[in-house]
Amino acid sequence: MLNHTVKIGILGAGTVGSGVIRLLRDQADLLMQRSALSYQLKSVVDVNWSKAQGIDFEGITTGSDPALILDDPEIDIVVETIGGLEPAATFVLAALSRRKHVVTANKALVAIRGRELFRQAQSNGVDLMFEASVGGGIPIIKGLREGLVANRIASIFGILNGTTNYILTRMSLDGMDFDGALSQAQRLGFAEKDPTLDIGGGDASHKLAILASIASSATVDLSRIHVEGIMGVAKLDVDFARSLGYVIKLLAICRQVEGKYDLRVHPTLIPQQHLLAAVNDEQNAIFVRGDFVGDMMFYGPGAGERPTASAIVSDIVDLSRDLLLNEGERFCRRTIDPEAEVSLLPLSEVVNRYYLRFYTLDAPGILAKIAGTLADNSISISSVVQLEKHERDNYVPLVILTHQALEKSMENALKTIRAYDFIREDMLRLRLF
User: Fold this and answer.
1) Please, what is the end-to-end C-alpha distance for the chain in angstroms?
2) Confidence of residue 386 (pLDDT cuts 50, 70, 90)
3) 207 classed as catalytic
4) Tens-digit pLDDT profile for residues 274-303
5) What is the DSSP letter of 201?
6) What is the pTM of this model?
7) Are residues 247 and 196 in the same domain?
8) Which residue range forms the structural domain that includes residue 229?
């Protein structure tokens, strides 16, 4: 039983780890008032201390050897803020095996190695908490797991990546092209030097896997989530979408369809009147539909030192209450069942409306040819927009919106259309919300 003091060790003193250190110090009185517990940061370990400048480490043991934390029997909770898969996974597994609770902000770790980690936690009667892994400071995991515990989650639609949302916002509101918006995001620190994980959709897919696991109480095979990035979206598409009453966002989708889960990440046309359409810049938002509560939206900063530290400390307080009540083993089952597997709906069976953008030669009969090919695959057209302005090589942009159609039908139609000699290669297919 604890003596009302929780002892904490932090692995990683970078941006997020430093934020946790500052928060535990600056808000010590508030945390004591609200939880009736005190929190002693006993040890911090890192191999590179350059990002921890300006932090007061008085009374804290520091070093570069993780054994300083992992082998300390007094430490109750280990906070992992190293990032990446290794050595983070090795350290987290070691902490869990030593019956220490773990808090992490590491979305890749939870999404890719989650099954192994949850098994280790359950077999040792401890818990793995990861509120900060999705949505930064947004309490979406706590909201799903606790606030909506009485609801079956019918769907989750999330804007989960601040980099892509910033880029698409600048393209929409400022008329920037993709490359210019990306460069600005990098200058302002919203995008990494290598932005591939963000603009390719990988970061959002990690977060989607975690949310879908929470919603289903089972594990998700990350490799089976369909992922498309925003690299093919041009300013022209953003302008076309606006003229048709839509905004383009990189959307993470989790839907229950007849007992299976439809999981996808891709650019999506969202109606301008929908709440998600108004989520701009680096902000994140998650739109959730529960079978009893109906529709809800969680909104806020999706990254950054302070929001992420806030989420980590909320997990620390939750775990500390469990420790005080000596109920850690009972609460280790509140996350995800590592032995249950989510049944996924094949992409080919998904039904969507579509936005199709082609560059075609300016010649008679082309639209009829494309429309005929779509019709041959049971796809009907809802609207057509064609610009008279010629692009390079005498090609003109043609945009088609369709009614709902099977994904496999659209794929078959596009396979045929791509072969036509009047179609330029840089066609684009997006889906509608």
Assistant:
1) 51
2) confident
3) yes
4) 999 999 999 999 999 999 999 999 999 888
5) S
6) 0.92
7) yes
8) 140-301
